[in-house]
Amino acid sequence: MTQDLIATLPKAVLHDHLDGGLRVSTILEIAQDEGYRGLPTADEAALLEWFHQGRSGSLERYLEAFEHTIAVMQTPDAIRRVAHEAGLDLAGDGVVYGEIRFAPSQHRRRGLTREAVIEAALDGLAAAQRETGIVLYAIVDAMRQDTDAEAVVAAATVYLNAGVVAFDLAGPEAGFPADDHIVACRAARDAGLGLTIHAGEGDGPDSIWRAIARCGAERIGHGVRIVDETTSIDGETGGEIIDLAPLARRVRDHRIPLEVAITSNLDTSAFANAAAHPFGALYRAGFAVTINTDNRLMSGISLSDEYRLARDTFGLGYADLGAITRTAIEAGFGDWPTRRRLLVDVIRPAYEAADRPSTDSSQA
Questions:
Q1: How far apart are CA 346 and CA 348, in angstroms?
Q2: 340-305-24 Cα angle (round to 5)
Q3: Of residues 201, 218, 229, 306, which has the active-site annotation?
Q4: What whole-number distance in Å separates Cα of residue 102 and Cα of residue 70?
Q5: Do the Cβ atoms of 19 and 48 come closer than 8 Å?
Q6: Residue 201 annotated in active site
Q7: Average of pLDDT values for 20-27?
Q8: In the chain, what are the domains?
Q9: Is CB count within 10 Å lower at the N or C end of the chain?
């Protein structure tokens, strides 16, 4: 498997933050145009290095970098541009299906309504779709540490069937349990929005339980601490799983998708190194894991990079990567006929073709 082939294979991303994937050149240009003087440097190479949070050491410190990306996303034009470029960059990386999330309340410093923020983002995503053919949808976030989740749901519901497909709770887990926002989560589900909740990233399995059992989450953002509810053959998080506690069994057997972002987890020191990460163990044990970027700028990665990391660290082949990509498409909140078309016409034939040479050579 070559790196070039990974880049050209069709991929799907379910967990990509709009304010975590800006081009550094765009940050500098918008900051100049809008008079934002808070950036740590005006040198593009130095700023790119500053944004990479590989040594942040915690989720809270990792999140600090967003102050600057959010600061330059306070006008419709800026939001539209960032969304457009995100779609272009993902399409250029071989992504054929993406769900991009953002918190509209964070882009209101200049008086924008939540609805205006959502409209600008949808306009940008739509432009990228027209230009590249990528399929893009929006997930609207509320922040766990804030108190406006119900207002966010109300704004998101306006654009149901117009590009918005789900509601999410993001932000720091510790001290801000998901069920503090249970009314908003129920309102989202009642309205017909999908529900995905950040859980089990910086906090333990109880966070995952609250998201699923109390709030009714259909997918879990990150969710990697579910490994704490398993027993492995050697006691290590990356080891072969041989037994599941009830919560882990529920997540696996009910096929609750986990939106895993390996590099992001390493950046926030959730695991010591890639080998200790449970992605491979969870995949082999039958969990519905997917591969995601989380924040392309802060982690300095593309989705192709994450596919390569999963391949190299956990010994995955083309067939495995194809299966994980199909899981992501099947777990998507977007239009089913569109997703089915991607599965049948794009994903399946591409990975079958990629897998064929190694299969033929093994039989020779």
A1: 6
A2: 105
A3: 201
A4: 10
A5: no
A6: yes
A7: 98
A8: 3-358 (3.20.20.140)
A9: C
